[in-house]
Design the sequence.
């Protein structure tokens, strides 16, 4: 007789076979707990399902719970001898979680994705889910699609908040730029700058994916659509800051003709164009080319980097950084040429010692000549004022537009001054830089048609500068133009007197070497006394009061917030003209975060989701 296969599954502790003649074909079994008949076709799957559905209280950690001897057959009685303490089903179920707490956790995870620029599929990661289950066992991580919907909802909510902020602002300044992602998708970025509660605010309002041609007409149309989307009347836009690209300059010319906006070319970008003009000199080109070739070799060779780092660690002083690294210049990165040369010179002798260990033919190709080192060292000193000016003017948390005229004029004065110790190389560089500054900043330096522009007005309204960088004739001209604007402000809206507040004690963050540059911009007659008749000619009481105030120790906006009650009409002009950034750096910064958003692990994002994520990341403080 053939013996049947041994029944080893624990399921059979709860089921028995019926006795003949009921079980003629042996295709049914009986549950020992409820006496229900079930079909059996060689597998215990349906038997396990029955136990889980009908008798969950008998489940154990291994899958089943042995029944008591009083309710089961002989096979269950033998198993009952080894059974452990019975555990309840609540031991295996997750504790209930408050819905409000679960929603808060979901919101915080969404903020991690947008704020820290993490890929959305982070929530599907096995170890991330384990971490959440350990920290909060009762919380179930929603799906990736749920977080995508949360991001879209947060974008709509935050966009409404930004709209309300812009609606409350009397005047707005924009910065604009175009950018291409790693997938070569083009984006049009716009940031808005305004005063809210006497505080400068900056908001990223658009990172739109663009598929049309980048013509001036299309760019002007995109700006119009953006204003309509945010319900911003064009007359509330005071100025637009862009780089010097021909298409975007032409687009702003169209907008200025339609809405009378003031187009400001990015001061930092224009300064870099002046630098590029001067670096075209043959000796400079050869020295920078040799330096770039050496830096590329070191950065691309693991052996070279390892040996120089060992030399650096063995000879490092307390003032030197712990890690060694070199910088390669990039034509579109501001001051990168200065930084490359400065870092190379700081490690000059370590690099020379490494080159001496190479074969002579290889070292001869990489080694810089003594003449190259001399040119590089002189270039570092000649480019330093430009780097200082660029670094200061690209800030967006403080007023920078009022310093453009003094800084540019100071740079012109500094590079026009020829020292007796200057050699022919330094003289030629200074002459070339002075010529380039005069040419490219003609709009800033010149008073065409006796009409002061935004640079001149903002400089006079800055209590740190006032009129000390103007000639007396130009100072009177700018003052009269501001008085005319004050009259328009009075006619446009009645002035509500404000309570005067205390001046904040925050100290100014101006650099000492920047003050040196500004000193070159003062004309000879700026400090000479003028008659009281000249000072009062055509001047209102507010302007007279302002002219008598001493240079404050606080920053510009803090000083004006404390003194706006003394000159409410002049303060309106301050709010109109001083909100303009000096550079397009805010738009550049928004593209830096957009590049991290759409790169690497998130390269499959749609243009719409890139905009949502970048908008939430850059405006996170409003969430």
Sequence:
């Amino acid at each position: 007789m053939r013996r049947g296969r041994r029944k080893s599954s624990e399921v059979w502790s709860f089921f028995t076979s019926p006795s003949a003649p009921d079980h003629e074909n042996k295709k049914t079994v009986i549950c020992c707990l409820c006496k229900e008949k079930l079909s059996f076709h060689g597998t215990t799957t349906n038997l396990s399902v029955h136990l889980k559905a009908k008798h969950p209280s008998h489940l154990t950690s291994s899958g089943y719970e042995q029944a008591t001897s009083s309710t089961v057959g002989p096979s269950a009685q033998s198993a009952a001898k080894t059974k452990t303490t019975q555990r309840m089903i609540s031991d295996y179920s997750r504790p209930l979680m408050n819905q409000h707490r679960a929603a808060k956790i979901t919101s915080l995870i969404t903020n991690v994705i947008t704020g820290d620029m993490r890929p959305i599929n982070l929530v599907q990661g096995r170890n991330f889910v384990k971490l959440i289950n350990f920290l909060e066992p009762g919380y179930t991580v929603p799906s990736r699609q749920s977080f995508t919907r949360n991001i879209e909802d947060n974008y709509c909510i935050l966009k409404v908040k930004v709209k309300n902020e812009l609606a409350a602002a009397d005047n707005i300044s924009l910065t604009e730029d175009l950018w291409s992602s790693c997938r070569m998708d083009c984006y049009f970025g716009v940031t808005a700058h305004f005063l809210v509660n006497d505080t400068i605010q900056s908001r990223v309002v658009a990172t739109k994916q663009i598929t049309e041609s980048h013509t001036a007409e299309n760019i002007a149309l995109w700006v119009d659509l953006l204003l309509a989307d945010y319900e911003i009347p064009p007359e509330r836009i005071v100025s637009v800051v862009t780089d010097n690209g021909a298409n975007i300059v032409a687009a702003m010319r169209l907008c200025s003709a339609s809405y009378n906006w003031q187009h400001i070319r990015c001061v930092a970008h224009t300064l870099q164009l002046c630098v590029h003009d001067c670096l075209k000199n043959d000796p400079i080109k050869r020295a920078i080319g040799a330096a770039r070739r050496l830096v590329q070799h070191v950065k691309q060779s693991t052996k070279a980097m390892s040996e120089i780092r060992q030399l650096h660690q063995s000879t490092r002083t307390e003032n030197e950084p712990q890690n060694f690294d070199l910088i390669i210049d990039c034509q579109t990165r501001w001051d990168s040429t200065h930084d490359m040369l400065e870092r190379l010179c700081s490690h000059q002798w370590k690099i020379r010692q490494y080159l001496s260990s190479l074969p002579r033919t290889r070292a001869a190709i990489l080694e810089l000549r003594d003449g190259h080192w001399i040119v590089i060292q002189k270039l570092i000193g000649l480019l330093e004022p430009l780097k200082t000016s660029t670094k200061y003017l690209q800030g967006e948390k403080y007023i920078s537009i009022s310093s453009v005229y003094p800084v540019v004029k100071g740079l012109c004065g500094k590079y026009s001054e020829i020292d007796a110790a200057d050699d022919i190389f330094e003289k030629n560089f200074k002459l070339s830089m002075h010529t380039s500054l005069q040419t490219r900043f003609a709009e800033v330096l010149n008073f065409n048609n006796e009409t002061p522009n935004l640079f001149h007005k903002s400089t006079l309204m800055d209590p740190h500068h006032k009129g000390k960088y103007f000639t007396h004739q130009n100072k009177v001209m700018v003052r009269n133009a501001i008085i005319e604007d004050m009259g328009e402000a009075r006619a446009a809206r009645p002035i509500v007197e404000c309570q005067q507040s205390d001046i904040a004690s925050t100290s100014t963050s101006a650099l000492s070497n920047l003050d040196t540059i500004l000193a070159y911009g003062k004309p000879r007659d700026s400090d000479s006394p003028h008659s009281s008749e000249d000072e009062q000619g055509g001047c209102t009481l507010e302007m007279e009061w302002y002219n008598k105030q001493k240079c404050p120790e606080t920053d510009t906006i803090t000083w004006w917030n404390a003194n706006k009650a003394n000159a409410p009409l002049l303060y309106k002009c301050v709010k109109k003209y001083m909100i303009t950034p000096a550079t397009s750096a805010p738009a550049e910064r928004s593209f830096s975060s957009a590049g991290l958003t759409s790169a690497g692990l998130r390269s499959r994002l749609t243009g719409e989701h890139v905009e949502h994520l970048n908008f939430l990341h850059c405006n996170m403080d409003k969430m």
Q: What stands out?
A: The CA atoms of residues 154 and 616 lie 8 Å apart. Residues 65-83, 494-511, 526-539 have pLDDT under 50 and may be disordered. The longest helix spans residues 144-168. The chain is about 50% helix and 10% strand.
